[in-house]
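Q: Could you predict the 3D structure of Peptide ABC transporter ATPase?
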Amino acid sequence: MTAAPTLLSAERLKVTFPGRHGGPPARAVDGVELGIRAGEIVALVGESGCGKTTLARALLGLERPTAGQVAFGGSPLDYTSRALKAYRRRVQLVLQDPSGSLNPRHTVYDAVAEGLRIHRYTGDERTAVAEALSKAGLRPPERFFLRYPHELSGGQRQRVVIAGALVLEPELIVADEPVASLDASVRGEILALLLRLRTELGLSALVVTHDLGLAWNIADRVAVMYLGRIVETGAVEQVLTAPRHPYTQALLSVLPEAPGEPVILTGEPPDPSRVSPGCRFHPRCPILASGEAERAGVADACRTQDPEILTADTDPQVACHWARARVAG
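A: Sure. Here are the predicted structure tokens for Peptide ABC transporter ATPase:
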């Protein structure tokens, strides 16, 4: 089978912010290569503060890169107002908190129709809103038109947010922690909805999450991010059943169904304005601390040599001297 074309890509992407009190700049995104193919769901996972949301904002054109570029359909993103407006019709954002992203004074109809009005839709607005609500699983849609957010359940509110994205018929959605604020009983329904939208509409998605269990249930591929950079990527089954990077192993070890004892990471939480020389994970790496990296002959490399930036290829990749030494050995 021929691989689907890449729809959205980041190429050597960097986003930095001014440092506090004149200190060194914060390297929120520090050389990321990532591709999302047509009809593919990619999960971007990592701890809070690792740069996931900044990367997502850069991919949406909400944050202008310091270096590198974002490309859609093979063309670099144009940051003029008109071009960005057209781009955001094709790539839509779904936020994690439906209560915060819905105006309490707007009815469901107005919330979903807002995007149509911004983009000066010339078709039948009522039909488009009804179809979007129906696709999001709110049926019959007319029953929800005049309701307000406080009259809906959390799952229904999240479906309204998704309908607001679908009404413009985008090719890709970026979902930032799409089920984080929902009860466990509702999460499965929203994940099933996203999978159904991929099947029925050919929709692509980037799902930003700290939850590896969610990634397992929804994604085709996973990209693990640490301190501004992707450190492991590949097919979700491969990465989550046989993780090679010590950071991925630590994230997986704390899941309830994980075998063995949880890996507790030591050291300070990562600071994007003070990225260590060598592997950026080495100050907290249990492999280095245990002496395993020393026995593999890579401890010095871990402390002094920055692993190469992973490419946007779909092949499994890892940015870890120890993991690569194990394969070579």
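Q: Anything worth pointing out?
A: The mean pLDDT is 93.
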